[in-house]
Amino acid sequence: MKTTSRFFTIGLVTAWYSSNIGVLLLNKYLLSNYGFKYPIFLTMCHMTACSLLSYIAIAWMKMVPMQTIRSRVQFFKIAALSLIFCASVVSGNISLKYLPVSFNQAIGATTPFFTAVFAYLMTFKREAWLTYATLVPVVTGVIIASGSEPSFHLFGFLMCVAATAARALKSVVQGILLSSEGEKLNSMNLLLYMAPIAVVFLLPATLFMEENVVGITLALAREDVKIVWYLLFNSSLAYFVNLTNFLVTKHTSALTLQVLGNAKGAVAVVVSILIFKNPVSITGMLGYSLTVLGVILYSEAKKRSK
């Protein structure tokens, strides 16, 4: 039984890695290499798939018990989280138009820095001095990587920083808004309610900011039907990332997920360089390695302070 359980966990982690890195690389391919320059519409496709597949997984397949929204206040809290989530995903997708995946992941690794900043600003929560000290190599590594990045693009860099900050803000705000026992939702139920709200936010944004995107996509589909399959597969993969994230956490622990997440970033960097062959300097790799080391030290410091 232990062997079966171990193989099951390894399979889950492999599925999580594959879907996570896969959606990242496919986003990059569509937005940069393929020339589908509509990151807001792409995000809306992701959220539409997450809405439908979340409902199928919870209401039909009964993967987890359905949790209901208990009050109007709770609904507005979830809507606020959804808006922050939209900002994070859209900014991240926009950054992929301009930056290689390797550099995108280097910036994304600074999430703990922004989490610590927002936690202090919004809850006045102080960490041990050693925990703050570990954030120095996290930020220093990105500064080094930025200075030596051959494909550096200022707007793409700012969008990636915004995405990373929004991702950290969501985790802090989620802890504040849904802290009471009556309001807590597991990640699958939270996605079930956040995704449709995100579609409502993204629909007017894509119509106004990405003019005639539906018509252009249909025209592209007539010329090359593969774009339809790319979008369907990519959107389904976006949901699968959330599903496998939940399952890995359930069958291991949040700490294990954090450690695996650090390693995932390094794997994504190597795979993206092999696929897209974007130039990377030795100094840039050293900077990214310093950031990953800082994140690992931060995780250890957090664990010891508890």
From TrEMBL:
UniProt-annotated location(s): Membrane
Keywords (A to Z) from UniProt: Membrane, Transmembrane, Transmembrane helix
Spans traversing the lipid bilayer: 7-26, 38-61, 73-96, 102-122, 129-146, 152-169, 190-207, 227-248, 255-276, 282-299
Xref: Pfam families: TPT (PF03151)
Domain Sugar phosphate transporter: 12-299
Membrane topology, as annotated: Multi-pass membrane protein
A cellular component annotation (GO) from this entry: membrane
InterPro entries named among the record's database cross-references: EmrE-like, Sugar_P_trans_dom, TPT_transporter
Main localization of the protein described in the UniProt heading: membrane
Protein's UniProt name: Sugar phosphate transporter domain-containing protein
